[in-house]
């Protein structure tokens, strides 16, 4: 029975959604009808994709699709079971071995989703005698992970090493301490000072887990992420398959003992269905392509610099981003929603982030640049953004930047 009290709670979320749809301003969950490269199909027309985590442009790669087709023929659509029982195939083991080899760790463990990887690993490691220390702006999967953990949680101000040191100093009596940070922060596009974090962790005897979701395949000379970017080693590397590797799922790469511990204690691993073999086969092929086609990462950074330079030249605030995750600050929820709809009408898809996803007054567009974009896609998107933003009073330049610096 849906009581009045339940209905009251539902209405707090549902009523604004209904109003947004009534005003034709609701832009969440658009249904696309084609692969998501630099462009996709929305309502039978082509749109430029400026929000897709397909960083290396592999999502429609013929070799990946062929590997997945062959896996379906060999393994079927699913194993219909958990990893510890009937859910593991030779493909799962192969991918884990390849990840450990690529990242230089003893072992690796794959999960069905990146979100579950963080939730499962952190909740398993955070027992009652462990203090979990987390950056203020960490991804919600990390937040949900430490909420499920039994240990105490300490939050430090975003990228504030003095605050982190203070927490480490004040928690010396704890038996175990685990510092968890995003490598690249998914809303602001900035990078954690992982070298400083690891130095502090070593000084105070803490373990470090880094979420490489938005840095794996992107940062570092060979795409190994934030650890390679800084030339450091983290105790636990977490990553996802749903971004640079164009699949779905997640992993940790770490010591053999930590992998075995998580394998036998993480509820998100023990009680969850295994990733389908068809997906695992695609990820294996994507990892191969990522290693041998370095031009994809080079093009990703070319596109990132071109787009960000164009935004800055137009007068937009990109909030200090230094990665392919480029926020465009708007500051007003209604303007953000109106502009999002107008952009889509002009053939440019950009996701919006409004309260409660971000604090009040901090609404923004969240663009994620990919190697699949061409220069003409970027230039067209900049023209449209300039036009829509001037109409909304976000920028005041008379003309859009026609040829942003490359």
TrEMBL record:
Aminotransferase class I/classII large domain ranges (all copies): 46-385
Sample GO molecular function, one term: transferase activity
GTP-binding keyword on record: no
UniProt cross-references to InterPro entries, sorted A to Z: Aminotrans_II_pyridoxalP_BS, Aminotransferase_I/II_large, AON_synthase_class-II, PyrdxlP-dep_Trfase, PyrdxlP-dep_Trfase_major, PyrdxlP-dep_Trfase_small
Keywords, sorted A to Z: Pyridoxal phosphate, Transferase
Function: Catalyzes the decarboxylative condensation of pimeloyl-[acyl-carrier protein] and L-alanine to produce 8-amino-7-oxononanoate (AON), [acyl-carrier protein], and carbon dioxide.
Subunit: Homodimer.
Name of protein: Glycine C-acetyltransferase
């Amino acid at each position: 029975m849906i009581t009045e009290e339940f209905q009251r709670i539902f209405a707090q979320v549902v009523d604004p959604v209904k109003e947004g749809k009534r005003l034709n301003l609701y832009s969440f969950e658009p249904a696309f009808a084609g692969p998501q490269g630099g462009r996709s199909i929305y309502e039978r027309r082509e749109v430029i994709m400026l929000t897709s985590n397909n960083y290396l442009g592999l999502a429609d790669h013929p070799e990946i699709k062929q590997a997945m087709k062959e896996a379906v023929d060999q393994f079927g659509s699913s194993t219909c079971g958990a990893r510890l029982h009937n859910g593991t195939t030779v493909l799962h083991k192969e991918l884990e071995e390849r990840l450990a080899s690529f990242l230089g760790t003893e072992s690796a463990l794959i999960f069905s989703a990146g979100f579950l990887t963080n939730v499962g690993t952190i909740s398993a490691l955070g027992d009652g005698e462990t203090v979990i220390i987390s950056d203020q702006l960490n991804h919600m999967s990390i937040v949900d992970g430490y909420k499920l953990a039994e240990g105490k949680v300490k939050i430090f101000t975003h990228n504030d090493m003095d605050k982190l040191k203070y927490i480490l100093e004040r928690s010396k009596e704890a038996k175990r301490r685990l510092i968890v940070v995003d490598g690249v922060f998914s809303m602001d596009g900035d990078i954690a000072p992982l070298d400083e974090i690891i130095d502090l962790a070593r000084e105070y005897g803490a373990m470090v887990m880094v979420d490489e979701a938005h840095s794996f395949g992107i940062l570092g000379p060979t795409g190994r992420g934030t650890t390679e970017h800084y030339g450091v080693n983290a105790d636990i590397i977490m990553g996802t398959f749903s971004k640079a590797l164009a699949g779905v799922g997640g992993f940790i790469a770490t010591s053999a003992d930590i992998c075995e511990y998580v394998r036998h204690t993480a509820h998100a691993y023990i009680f969850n269905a295994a990733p389908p073999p068809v997906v695992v086969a695609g990820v294996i092929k994507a990892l191969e392509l990522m290693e041998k086609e370095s031009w994809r990462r080079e093009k990703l950074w070319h596109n990132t610099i071109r787009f960000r330079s164009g935004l800055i030249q137009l007068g937009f605030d990109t909030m200090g981003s230094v990665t392919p995750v480029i926020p465009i600050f708007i500051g007003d929820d209604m303007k953000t929603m109106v502009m999002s709809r107008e952009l889509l009408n002009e053939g440019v898809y950009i996701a919006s982030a409004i309260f409660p996803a971000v604090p009040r007054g901090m609404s923004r567009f969240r663009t994620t640049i990919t190697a699949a974009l061409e220069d003409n896609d970027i230039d067209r998107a900049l023209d449209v953004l300039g036009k829509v933003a001037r109409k909304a009073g976000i920028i005041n330049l008379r003309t859009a930047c026609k040829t942003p610096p490359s």
